[in-house]
């Protein structure tokens, strides 16, 4: 069978430090986690930066640079930079690290949605930092904006950086957005899609929805490479289904903090190890970073700007 690309989304911009003492926050923690993921068999790490003093999401290019250069010195894992970060940041801030550091891969959110994380606040009894509760609750009246204008601008930025976009699809309407961008020449085939399920405001994390999105994308866009990620307890279920549909899988503390019910993961590497164990039960083997580069058609680690 084809090799499976395992991505680990290390920290994200949604979960707050009060939710887990193991959530990586500082550059050194992200560097260490990246190496652990590599050693566990992961091919890609998805990187967000956080303020090392408070754990708040940060668009700082210097924080991204610190992480990226150190990880590159330790191993050849693929680094995928976020252009999401914080829904309140302007696109220019969200995309600055990609434009400056020109990684091999970067996330490209394919449309706008209500990105509701406010229910998380109800489950936290004690907060570590004062910013966390208002940050979570504020999403009740917020939108994650990715307009056609900013999608066009973002696609041009990716082209300038020679960075392959990982197209984040939260619901079916975003497939129309991708098709439009392809028709205008802003996005080039072959495409790589990440189906993101289970976000409040997006499609529910169900097997039926994943199959529907995949079939709809094939009908509309033709051939493409793809991966799936899902929030919380759905992470391993939908990752397993994706692998057996010819796709790939993303795990990590951005999407899910638990290794098993009630058991916090102590490292992203534990989540990687689990999905690889599942993959092997079905006869799949994890792709190395270089194998993943060939599958996705990436420019290579020697062509990044860090």
Describe the overall structure.
The protein has 306 residues and is α/β, with parallel strands linked by helices. The chain has one domain: Aldolase class I (TIM Barrel). 38% of the residues lie in helices and 16% in strands. It contains 11 helices and 12 strands. It has helices spanning 27-40, 61-74, 91-94, 96-101, 132-137, 148-161, 173-183, 207-221, 235-243, 268-281, 289-296, and strands at 6-9, 44-47, 49-50, 57-58, 78-81, 105-109, 164-169, 191-197, 224-230, 248-251, 258-260, 263-264. The strands form 3 sheets. It has an 8-stranded parallel β-barrel, surrounded by 7 helices. A two-stranded antiparallel ribbon has the order 3-4. The protein has a two-stranded antiparallel ribbon with strand order 11-12. Helix 7 (173-183) links the parallel strand 7 and strand 8 (191-197). The longest helix has 15 residues, at 207-221. The chain is globular, with a radius of gyration of 18 Å. The mean pLDDT is 96.
Taking the alpha carbons of the first and last residues, their distance comes to: 34 Å
Q: How many separate domains?
A: 1
Assembly classification: single chain
| Low-confidence sequence ranges | none
The CATH architecture would be Alpha-Beta Barrel
Strand order of the largest sheet: 1-2-5-6-7-8-9-10
Q: Using the coordinates shown, work out and report the CATH topology.
A: TIM Barrel
Order of helices and strands: EHEEEHEHHEHHEHEHEHEEEHH
Mean pLDDT: 96
The largest sheet is: 8 strands, parallel, barrel
Radius of gyration: 18 Å
Number of strands: 12
CATH superfamily (homologous) name: Aldolase class I
Number of H- or I-type helical stretches: 11
Strand content: 15-25%
**Overall 3D geometry?**
globular
Classify the helix fraction into a percent range: 25-40%
């Amino acid at each position: 069978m084809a090799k499976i690309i395992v991505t680990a989304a290390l920290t994200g911009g949604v979960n707050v430090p009060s939710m887990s003492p193991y959530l990586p926050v500082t550059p050194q923690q992200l560097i260490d986690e990246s190496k652990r993921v590599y050693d566990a068999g992961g091919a890609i790490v998805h990187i967000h930066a956080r303020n090392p003093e408070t754990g708040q999401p940060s668009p700082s290019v210097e924080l991204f640079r610190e992480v990226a250069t150190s990880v590159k010195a330790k191993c050849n894992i693929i680094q995928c930079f976020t252009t999401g970060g914080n829904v309140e940041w302007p696109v220019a801030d969200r995309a600055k690290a990609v434009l400056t550091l020109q990684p091999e891969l970067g996330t490209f959110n394919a449309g706008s949605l209500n990105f509701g994380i406010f229910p998380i606040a109800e489950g936290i009894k004690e907060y570590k930092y004062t910013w966390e509760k208002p940050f979570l609750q504020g999403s009740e009246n917020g939108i994650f904006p990715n307009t056609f204008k900013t999608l066009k601008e973002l696609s041009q930025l990716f082209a300038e950086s020679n960075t392959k976009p990982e197209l984040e699809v939260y619901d079916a309407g975003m497939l129309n957005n991708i098709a439009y961008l392809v028709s205008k020449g802003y996005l080039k085939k072959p495409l790589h899609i990440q189906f993101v399920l289970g976000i409040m405001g997006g499609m529910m994390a169900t097997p039926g929805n994943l199959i529907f999105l995949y079939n709809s994308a094939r009908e509309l866009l033709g051939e493409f490479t793809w991966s799936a990620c899902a929030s919380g307890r759905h992470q391993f279920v939908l990752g397993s289904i994706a692998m057996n549909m010819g796709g790939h899988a993303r795990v990590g503390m951005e999407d899910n903090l638990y290794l098993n019910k009630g058991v916090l993961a102590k490292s992203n590497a534990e989540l990687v190890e689990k999905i690889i164990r599942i993959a092997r039960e079905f006869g799949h083997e994890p792709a190395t970073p270089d194998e993943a580069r060939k599958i996705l058609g990436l420019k290579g680690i020697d062509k990044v700007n860090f």
